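INFO batch 0412 | record 1 of 1 | parsing
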Amino acid sequence: MYELSHSLRKNKNELLWLACVALTDQFVHERLTDERYQAGVMELEQHINSSGNLDAVTSVTLKDGTKVTVPDSSRISYEDEPRLMLLQEWNLFDSMLCSSYIATKLKTWSDNGLKKMQLLLARMGFAREECKQKFQYMSVEIKHRMKDMFEQYLPEFGLTDFYYRGFLLLHGYSSKISAADVVYGVTALLESSVESDGSSGSKQFGIAYDALSLNKLDKLETGMRQAIKVQRAVLRQGSTAITKKGSIRSGSKFRWVKLEDSADTKLLCHPQALTKFGYFLMDALREKGARMKPLICVCYTQEQKKVLIVGICGKPRLGAVQGNAFGIAFRSAAEETGAEYFHELFESSWIVLETVAVNSFMIRLTEKLL
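INFO prediction complete | emitting tokens
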């Protein structure tokens, strides 16, 4: 879409920023390969450079007479970002504890994993009390040293691809927003207080759309706080599923897990939230050396007589030529069972089904994959 506006010479910073958010959404939700993401990043970086974003500064004088350079309008930048979810809105300790990348590699839900994370922070010279402060109130010195310390010590803990190229929207020195944080916040708003069958979605869409504007930062912050709640629920339920024997059942063609009714069900009974939970489990199982298979996640909806079922094939691979046989079988079994099949992606699909029909769906899916 941005390429079209660029060719028509109607390209504006607002559209360029939305293009950055859109690409980041694909990356964050694991809908494209790392190679394709990097190609997209390079293309957008060229547009950012050519649009003059990096040079859009002017000089202003403060009350004490000091002259400083401040951007006179919103500008887009890019830099290496850590795989830490919502760090600007959270604190370093909890962001490391709950972010899927570090949590699945260090197993932060276990005592041993938590000790490893605390040891990492100690090796970097970051006091625990400092790391538990909201990030914006942390010591400036620690923030400046953070990247160098991470790059020095993370490889010792098997964390070798911690940074990725990300995008930032800046306005003066009062506002700095990561495209990834926008994705997390807007996604949480889209699914907040929405039934898993999509009802009330139009209202939430309007709120989420408003959150994309810098003039409605309060709405985006609301979404970010909701996203943090969802991620905590992912960690709690994910650690339970991994450590509790028999929680994850494995067949010859796929695994499946059912979330028991709990306080977290309300947070995870939405398609994207349950998909995020599924990817968390797949990453954790991969770190344990388990063979990769598609995963079925089952969760009660807010209507107790129905369940939301999400089928996840895994992150796309560069050069993959085999079709999505699991996705085709998933849809066919859903149709035969009479499920409400209301969304389909290349890597995941989801349906709403009567609770009593779950076993029938599983049997049909198994038969179609034989």
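INFO post-check: The first strand starts at residue 58 and ends at 61.
INFO record closed
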